[in-house]
Amino acid sequence: AGEGVAHVATNGQAADDGKPIIRICDLHKSYDDLVVLRGVDLEVKRGEVVVILGPSGSGKSTLLRCVNLLEQPTGGQVFFEDTEITAKGTDINAVRAKVGMVFQSFNLFPHLTAKGNVMLAQQKVLKRSKEEAAKVAVEQLTKVGLAERVDYKPSQLSGGQQQRVAIARALAMDPHVMLFDEATSALDPELVRDVLGVMKELARGGMTMIVVTHEMGFARDVADRVIFMDGGVIVEEGTPDEVFDHPKSDRTKDFLGHIR
Ligand code: ADP
Ligand code: MG
């Protein structure tokens, strides 16, 4: 990269230095007249699992999309491993490789097999050879429980299996952080468990994760910290026990009351 181009550090697996891996400072985002984020501050430490809850339209997806630069914030800053990624000239592809994201919709290429889908960005973005990309793809697909399905096309896989391919695709890039945006919301109930299981395993393995979900059991079980967003701000945050059992804000109480 040329002069003045922001670099993304590649020392993501370094020992915990106590510094946050992600630092979001006074983040604002508007779409024309619609103000969606009104000053969000959030730090995420290496290895931490942060679950974000909140009603529809509260800005959860927009926040995640600002972290991997699918959206450009209208104000504030996002730092990733000491680099301000919201600065001009940031290498967006480098950020997206290091900050993996899994969406509600899996967005797999229908004409490619599971393996082909997991290989693609490795070759295009990381410039891995076909052989290396295939090897990593099989490893990651095995990790998400799809060793027997590497040669299947998306149409031959269940929704839960397709979502696990999408997770393997993100993991194949060796991300330092994983963002999950309602990764199980589009799935039939019986398929949700396998995907949550993969996410839980990842968390246990020390992956730094920000997870937007309505799965309260998962949040209780896996989150180090729970954040409740409403109206484009963080209303409340704490441990799962604090937020679920002793919510301070009326808005949090109201939300939890409805979802239970
Ligand atoms: P959540 O994920 O919490 O449901 P979102 O971040 O998706 O909330 O959306 C917050 C608000 O921003 C909503 O009112 C939504 O309609 C609006 N919004 C999101 N994306 C766009 C966009 N690309 N253009 C205009 N408005 C948007
Ligand atoms: Mg959303």
Automatic annotation (TrEMBL):
Membrane topology annotation: Peripheral membrane protein
ABC transporter domain mapped to chain residues: 22-256
Stretches for region Disordered: 241-260
EC number: 7.4.2.1
GO cellular component, one term: plasma membrane
Main location, first listed in the record: membrane
Principal EC category: translocase
Keyword Membrane included in the entry's annotation: yes
Location in or out of the cell: Cell membrane
PROSITE patterns with a match to the protein in the record: ABC_TRANSPORTER_1, ABC_TRANSPORTER_2
Pfam families given in the database record: ABC_tran
Highest taxon in the source lineage: Bacteria
Gene3D superfamilies noted in UniProt: P-loop containing nucleotide triphosphate hydrolases
GO-annotated molecular function: ATP binding; ATP hydrolysis activity; ATPase-coupled polar amino acid-transporter activity
Statement: the UniProt record of this protein carries the keyword Ligase: no
Amino acid composition bias (Basic and acidic residues), ranges on this chain: 243-260
Keywords: Amino-acid transport, ATP-binding, Cell membrane, Membrane, Nucleotide-binding, Transport
Reaction(s) catalysed (UniProt annotation): a polar amino acid(out) + ATP + H2O = a polar amino acid(in) + ADP + phosphate + H(+)
Family indicated by similarity: Belongs to the ABC transporter superfamily.
Identification of the protein by name: ABC-type polar-amino-acid transporter
Organism (species): Ellagibacter isourolithinifaciens
